[in-house]
Amino acid sequence: MSELRTTLVQCDLRWEDPATNCQRLAEQLGDIGEAETDLIVLPEMFATGFTMNSREMAQSMEESEALAWMREQAQRRGCVMTGSLAIKDHASYFNRLIWAWPNGDIAHYDKRHLFRMAGEHERYGMGRDRVVVEYKGIRLLLTVCYDLRFPVWLRQQPGEHDGFEYDALLCVANWPAPRRHPWRTLLQARAIENACYTIGVNRVGEDAKGLSYAGDSMLVDFKGEPLIDEPRDTPFIRTGVIDSQSLARFREKFPAWMDADRFTVEV
Q1: 145 an active-site residue?
Q2: DSSP string spanning 4-64?
Q3: Is residue 105 one of the residues assigned to a domain?
Q4: Residue 125 belongs to domain with CATH number
């Protein structure tokens, strides 16, 4: 059985200023490393804010300074670093969640559900693949912001471990304060219906478009109970534990998954 120490980084972001955002984050994280955590989670588009200026702000995987920073931080701190970036991939642009391993390797997930109310679907390409990564014996489904509203896309699929595909759902976001109730409710609902932990990391502050963000970053257990839940509008860095032993005991004691509907998702 395994534990995954997970660090939530709730912070303000400077609009379309990757160098400053990366510098500030490095300072805020201080000496946090493998002695304290296994995974550091940053908000959606942590380098720029939720920009629709994809053609101006996106860089390729090879040229992205923010991605290079993530890789360097992961290697130096000896833990995984994750968060999303605006990435150019050939002639397309993606809101891409980067998973930077401490050994220098990179995995990624492209946001599937694009927030049309902000025109994201006109500026970025839609992801096609669900991505599950495994680290320290914990399997995590990677998602970004608006994905959280779509339970079919996030639903557990039959896996090798007693019908479960993943143990934790990770969602990074720029989720505005006027919709904070759905954010909080959906993080708990996704945990309950999938018998998993959920990790939700959102920003605070105000962006250049005048949108305010309350944060409400949370670590939620498989019963929907918050393990990390700080007051709104408060920047913080906190670490909680995803415990596979507690999760396994709950799934065995309450095997609702055995009565789940079977279906496939068209991509």
Answers
A1: yes
A2: EEEEEEE-B--TT-HHHHHHHHHHHHTT--TTT-SEEE--TTTTT-S-S-HHHH-EETTT-
A3: yes
A4: 3.60.110.10
